[in-house]
């Protein structure tokens, strides 16, 4: 079974506003999350990224739903060092890597995965994970180079963590299972701790 210290949990905060960024960031860091993604289809995402990056220098802060190279530049300027995409866009991959950022392009098929690798990616986001399932990840990992990391994202709950780890997940991303704008700070904190505890139990 996987070593918990090597499994990365990614908090995906779609809809987070700059006003709530301080309390949400503090709650996630307190629960043990060290990687935080603000999708660019959130309100004022670059302001939120700037606030989180300044407040949590020990965490990896960045953006999701990054669809074009110009957005990569804006994320970097805001202090973000992570670029996550729902798709495999080689220009986005190359721009992020040129700036020294971590880049997780979205892939679903072996064709997309190897296209991302040719563009320089070494980490991939399997999306949407729940519709493909853990068996799909296991099959992909059997043909990908051993150094390539794959992060399933989309529709994964605490009860699913063990199955994904057995299938070779190197990390897991949590969106609506962790954060929605309607969630209170108490609800978010509870969900964050539950996910971290589920990871510990699974490993």
Structure commentary:
This protein is α/β, with parallel strands linked by helices and 203 residues long. Helices cover 43% and strands 17% of the residues. It has helices at residues 21-31, 45-55, 69-77, 90-98, 110-118, 129-132, 134-143, 161-166, 185-202; strands spanning 8-12, 35-39, 60-64, 82-84, 102-104, 106-107, 123-126, 149-152, 171-174. It has a six-stranded parallel sheet. Strands 6-7-8 form a three-stranded parallel sheet, with helices on one face. Helix 4 links the parallel strand 4 and strand 5. Helix 1 runs parallel beside helix 9 (185-202). The longest helix is centred in the C-terminal third of the chain and has 18 residues, at 185-202. The protein is globular, with a radius of gyration of 16 Å.
User: SSE string, helix = H, strand = E?
Assistant: EHEHEHEHEEHEHHEHEH
Helical stretch tally? 9
Distance between the termini: 6 Å
Radius of gyration: 16 Å
From the spread of the alpha carbons, the general shape counts as: globular
Major sheet: arrangement of strands: 5-4-3-2-1-9
Q: Please tell me the overall pLDDT.
A: 96
Biggest sheet descriptor: 6 strands, parallel
Query: Which band does the percent of strand residues land in?
Result: 15-25%
Q: In total, how many beta strands?
A: 9
Structural class: alpha/beta
Low-pLDDT stretches: none
**Helical residues, percent:** 40-55%
